[in-house]
Amino acid sequence: MATSYGKNLNISIYGGSHDEIIGIRATGLPRGFVFDLEKLARFMERRAPGRNSLSTTRKEPDRPEFLSGVSLLEGNKACLRGDELHAIIRNTSQRSSDYSNLEFIPRPSHADYAARMKYGEGVDLRGGGHFSGRLTAPLCIIGGICLQYLEEKGVNIGAHLYSVGSAKDTPFDLATVGKGELSLLEKRSEFPVLDENAEGEMKSEIESARLEGDSVGGIIECAAIGLSAGLGEHIFSGVESRISAIAFSIPAVKAIEFGNGFECASLRGSQNNDQFCTDGSKIYTKTNNCGGILGGMTNGMPLVFRVAMKPTPSIYREQDSVDMVSMKPVKLTIKGRHDPCVVLRALPVVEAATAIAIVDMLLDD
Questions:
Q1: Domains identified in the chain, total number
Q2: Beta-carbon neighbour count of residue 239 at 10 Å?
Q3: Domain containing 16: what range?
Q4: Of residues 56 and 28, which shows the higher confidence score?
Q5: The dihedral of CA 223, 229, 233, 234: what is its sign?
Q6: What torsion do the CA atoms of 338, 339, 341, 343 make, to the nearest 10 degrees?
Q7: Could you tell me the pLDDT band of residue 56, with boundaries at 50, 70 and 90?
Q8: CB 359 within 8 A of CB 150
């Protein structure tokens, strides 16, 4: 299975949702960087399941254990040694019996059918196996370290719930989003929105879906500020390409757009072009429809993009499927513990993925 990412900072994720452990190996991390273990734990907790009624009832502590690559220091700090970092998370709340009746009945909108066709009957699909969102937990270990590294370099990353179902938050101002908005979202990390009124509307959407045995999707908007112009490369190594590659590794992500994205297709060039200006010391653009990227490279403006996430495919309503042995239609009712909306817990994963991609680009020759 293809489970690695990165040109300079290379990561490889292994394990399955119901295995004893899941883990990540990483090479290329900046040697000598000291990070805060407590801060990393707080970041990991944002993604962890079972935090509130809006997520799955599966409870996992998601505490990373470092087997190599770091030296523990006083004051709950750790230092990157420069060799391969190997970290694991122990799964402690698996319930594989919930999937015992699904061995040959693919769940709609899951990877089950395609995975069986590619890997055969031996593929592990308990809880989604290696295709599960559970595998974003080890991604957040490296992403959390990268977020701290970037912050030390003056680069800040933050995301908010742009929408959940039909409920929408105030979008980032593409040209002026800054530390003020990102600091506000950090304070509201339990439910990151810019407009407090949007929180109630979004929670109502999620709760309504949950009570009906259903699920709801949404959109995450992410910004990176403090990036200098000229990061990234053209054609195959552009900023959009490298962020998109890791963003689409997050289960349930179905679309991505940078800047004004699909909206630009309905505009004229005179409306869409970001015109240049200067304050006498630096060059910037009046607008930021490009989302901070030109020709695959950063232009010094805020890097802003959005990812759309589908509704959780594991729902409790009866659905149609097929018994792959008898080749007959069957009715399927899924058991288990599932998020009525994955968007909230996926938000820190998007931040983590963005941080990994940016650090990887910063390490370009």
A1: 1
A2: 28
A3: 4-362
A4: 28
A5: positive
A6: -120
A7: low
A8: yes
pLDDT (0 to 100) of residue 94: 52
| pLDDT the model gives residue 96 | 47
**CATH number of the CATH domain containing 174:** 3.60.150.10
Cα separation, 132 vs 140, whole angstroms: 14
Contact 145, 69 (CB under 8 A): no
What pTM did the predictor assign?
Answer: 0.94
Q: Nearest to residue 241, comparing CAs of 226, 231, 229?
A: 231
pLDDT tens for 165-217 read 999 999 999 999 999 999 999 999 999 999 999 999 999 999 999 999 999 99
Q: What is the dihedral of CA 277, 278, 283, 284, to 10 degrees?
A: -50
| Helical ranges in 23-74 per DSSP H | 37-47
Contact 27, 10 (CB under 8 A): yes
- The encoded tokens of residue 253 equal 């992500």
